[in-house]
Amino acid sequence: PSPCRVAMCVGKCSRIVGPCLLVLGTLSVAANILLLFPGGAFKYLVEGHISKDVKVMPGVWGGGITVLLAAAHITAVGWRCAGCSDCGTRCNAFISAVLSKLALLGAAACFVLSGVGLTNGPLCFYNASEHSRGHGTLWGYPFLDAGSQEPDARAENYLYDRRTWSICLEPAGVVAWNVVLFSLLLLISAAEMVLASLQILNGCLGCLCGFCEGK
Questions:
Q1: Euclidean distance between CA atoms 124 and 138, whole angstroms
Q2: pTM (two decimals)
Q3: Is residue 121 left, alpha or beta, with left meaning phi > 0 and alpha meaning psi from -120 to 50?
Q4: Rounded CA gap, 46 and 36, in Å?
Q5: Whose CB has fewer CB within 10 Å in the chain, the N or C terminal residue?
Q6: How far apart are CA 46 and CA 173, in angstroms?
Q7: Domain ranges of the chain
């Protein structure tokens, strides 16, 4: 294909990828913020009864800020270069490729940490007498402390056996809240990784051909 045609494709791709990453990054931040308020209640955050995996906030800095920085640059440059003849796009394409690499790393970190959070399960007030290790009710990780099971077995047991979710007495519905939002973060970060990888390739092509369509 001619350099002009490649430049047009690169520009159009940037105007699709950028807004998509903006939406995904915003959703990632929103999902992680919701995890801080299980069941929509504020008191658990104030009391410090929030899962350690949630406190890391991978959806904010990983799938959120790094992705939004790249998305803002990609979107701005993509639209600014629509139909222009000379706007320094090779330099901007290089910057977009670098930012996309950071976004890829951030999304990958979000994916891994969300998977860990999903495997460990939520922090909740539960009846420890249902476990062989303790008695009475206490704050802890009932699914993380489930005997000597391997992590994958623990995750499979509680994720696919909803009868075990009732062990958590507080916050109300915290297991479903945790599972849904961490699963959403997994899907969002996976999509971000795909788009960021696409934009890295796109940015490299832009470095060679630019992406101003009016050349």
A1: 8
A2: 0.84
A3: left
A4: 10
A5: N
A6: 18
A7: 3-121+171-213
